[in-house]
Amino acid sequence: MTNKDEITMNSDKNAYFLSLPEITELSVPPKTILLEEGRIADKLFLIRKGCLRLFFNNEGQDITFQFFFEGDFVASFDSLYKRTPSLFSLESIEPAELSVMKREDFFRNLGQKPVLRQIYEEKIIERFHVYQRLFLSRIKNTPQQRYEELLKEYPSIIQRVPQHYIASYLGITAVSLSRIRNRR
Question: What CA–CA distance (Å, rounded) separates 140 from 129?
């Protein structure tokens, strides 16, 4: 499958989601907290425009562990499913245009619409795959290698995401990231 085929399939899936009557639209400025760590998730978001990040607080320092861009579905899936407090916060980095579905509408539709269930399962598997790669990368790769992987996957991330969030994501300081960038 080519990237173009993948984009078309994802666009079709996103169009299906957007066609559901329970969808609402939300525009938010940068630095908007959409889900606070410790709260129970009650919404699923589809990013139509913008960039979001997931982060958690570790002894007063916020640690970014994932970025999301146009076409991505975002939620604290564990919290959404189990009704447990979220282990992280969700925040907009850029002005964002989001399509939103409430938890109860989402799970009702999941039971009634096999296409939505298939989309959900694919997104969960995709997220699991991303976390596996991230976990292995943290164990076996140097910060330089992790940075190169990030640029390969998201070439425009440097223009869209502040350096301190990227450094946090890579598990290094902003100064170390600056050194890595200067070596390129």
Answer: 17
* 83-88 own/partner pairs: CB under 8 Å, 24+ apart: 83/40, 84/40, 85/37, 85/38, 85/39, 85/40, 86/35, 86/36, 86/37, 86/38, 86/39, 86/40, 86/41, 87/37, 87/56, 88/35, 88/37, 88/54, 88/55, 88/56
Cβ within 8 Å of residue 6, ≥6 positions away: none
Please give the structure tokens belonging to residue 70.
Answer: 């146009």
Q: Is the pLDDT of residue 6 over 70?
A: no
Q: What is the CATH superfamily name and number for domain 3-112?
A: Jelly Rolls (2.60.120.10)
Q: How far apart are the first and last CA of the chain?
A: 32
Q: Which of 136, 135, 145 is nearest to 183 (CA)?
A: 145
As a whole number, mean pLDDT of residues 97-115 equals 93
Looking at per-residue pLDDT, the higher value among 9 and 106 belongs to: 106
Global pTM? 0.85
Domain boundaries, the chain: 3-112
